[in-house]
């Protein structure tokens, strides 16, 4: 099945089996191995990417469902010699240990910061009509779909605060 995707700003045409997940298309057909296959059930968040600016679990969606969509992976957020502010904060705040979940954490946090900027409330947002405050509880709630086996959560929260220009 012909599928057209814009991956990290580059238009790509793929000829895929219609059963191919977006994660497998990225990793096995395009060689973008930053997004990880953790649980393959949408429970860990290691495969988180952004589609049209919204974060999704790439293991739970078929690539052909995103024909014409814009996909941003960790490779599109920054490179080793040009890190995004969030990636830099993860490094400086020790927001990773083994690093397996880090690409998904960073993709999720990038989209999460945009959600807050756009005024989207979460379950713990105290004033649904007002602006969400970037509290540790707010970050933890919004990042709850991204698991870290090493339990680097306090450092991840601190890195997000730092990237957003806030102190925890």
TrEMBL record:
Its EC number is 1.2.7.4. CDD domains: fer2. Keywords: 2Fe-2S, Iron, Iron-sulfur, Metal-binding, Oxidoreductase. The keyword rRNA-binding does not apply. One of its GO terms (molecular function) is anaerobic carbon-monoxide dehydrogenase activity. Residues 1-77 form the 2Fe-2S ferredoxin-type domain. It comes from the Bacteria. InterPro entries: 2Fe-2S-bd, 2Fe-2S-bd_dom_sf, 2Fe-2S_ferredoxin-like_sf, 2Fe-2S_ferredoxin-type, 2Fe2S_fd_BS, Aldehyde_Oxdr_Iron-Sulfur, Beta-grasp_dom_sf. This is Carbon monoxide dehydrogenase small chain. It comes from Flavimaricola marinus. The lineage of its organism: Bacteria, Pseudomonadati, Pseudomonadota, Alphaproteobacteria, Rhodobacterales. The gene is cutS.
